[in-house]
Amino acid sequence: MRSHLLAHLLYLLLAAGRDVTGKEVDRKPNFVLMMVDDLGIGDVGCYGNDTIRTPNIDRLASEGVKLTQHIAAAPLCTPSRAAFMTGRYALRSGLGSTGRVQVLLFLGGSGGLPPSETTFAKRLQQHGYTTSLVVSGSLSLFLALQGSDILADLQHALRNLTMLLVVGLFTLVKVCVHVCGLFEVSLWLFVALFFLSILATAVWCMPFKLLPTWNCIIMRNQEVTEQPMTVETLPQRLLGEAQSFIKRNVDNPFLLFFSLAHVHTPLFKTPAFAGKSRHGRYGDNLEEVDWMIGKITETVDSLGLANNTLMYFTSDHGGHLEDADSIIGQKGGWNGIYKGGKAMGGWEGGIRVPGIFRWPGRLAAGRVVDEPTSLMDLYPTLKYLAKDTQPDRQSDGYNLMPLLEGKVDRSEHEFMFHYCGIYLNAVRWHPPGSDSLFKVHFFTPNFSPPGAGGCYDTKVCLCHGDHVTHHSPPLLYDLFHDPSESRPLTPDTEPRYAEILEQTAKAVERHRNTLTNKQASDDTHSHPNADVPSVQSQMTWDKILWRPRLQPCCGTFPFCGCKEEPTHI
Question: Are 200 and 333 found together in one domain?
Answer without folding.
Answer: no
